[in-house]
Amino acid sequence: MLHQGSSSHPRPYVFVNGFRKPLQLQRFLPRYRSDHDVQAMNREPDLDTTGALADTDWRIEDIVGRAVLEEAPATLRIEADGRVSGRTGCNLFTGSVRVTRDAIRFGPLATTRSICPPALMEQEQRLLNAFEAARSFSIDESGLLHLKGEYEPFLLRASPVRGR
Asked: CA distances (Å), 53 to each of 90, 126, 137, 146, 147, in order?
C-alpha cells in the first residue's frame, strides 16, 4: 500500500516486511513488465537444451558484488519444467523461470514471510532484485553460474552443489 508523506516524511513510502521504505520511482521504472512480457512468462518453458541449469542445486556465493552471509546460505534450483525454488537466507521462494540458450527471465516469485535480522532482509532483497533484473547467464570453466542484467554486468555468482 502506498502512503503519502507527511511533514516529517515528505516522500511517499511503502511498507516492506513491516519496515517503512521510501518509494523511489526511478528504481521501479526500468523493471516495468509489459503485457507482452507477462504473457511470455506464462507460456510453456523453453528450457536450455544443454541442461546446464535444469535439475541442479546452486549455492549462491555472491549477490551484486557482496558475499552471501555464511550463517544464512542462499540457494537456487531450476527444474526442467520451468519451476524455480530456493532460499534467500531468510525465506523460501518459488516461482517460474524461462531459460533459452544464454537468456534467462524469472517470473514473479512468491516468498514465505518470515522476519529476519536486518542483514538477512537486506540480503534477501538484493537476491530478489538480482533475479528480477537477470537477463542472461553463463557458466564459466570452473562450473560457476553467473547471472547478468541488461545494464548490470554482474548480478550473481553461484556454485553447483555436489552430491545432493
From this structure: 23, 21, 10, 11, 12
Q: How confident is the model at residue 102 (pLDDT cuts 50, 70, 90)?
A: confident
**Residue 127 near residue 63, CB atoms below 8 Å:** yes
**Block residue for cell numbers 518453458:** 45
Alpha helices in 94-133 (DSSP H): 118-133
CA–CA distance, 101 with 144 (Å, rounded to integer): 16
Q: Where are the domains of the chain?
A: 1-32, 33-160
User: Letter for the amino acid at 130?
Assistant: A
CATH of domain 33-160: 2.40.128.270
Asked whether the CA dihedral 59, 64, 67, 68 is positive or negative, the reply is negative
Instruction: Report the Cα 90 to chain-centroid distance in Å.
Output: 13
Q: Tell me, what amino acid is at 77?
A: R
pLDDT tier for residue 45 given thresholds of 50, 70 and 90: very low
Among candidates 99, 91, 57, which has minimal Cα distance to 76? Answer: 57
Identity of the residue numbered 28: F
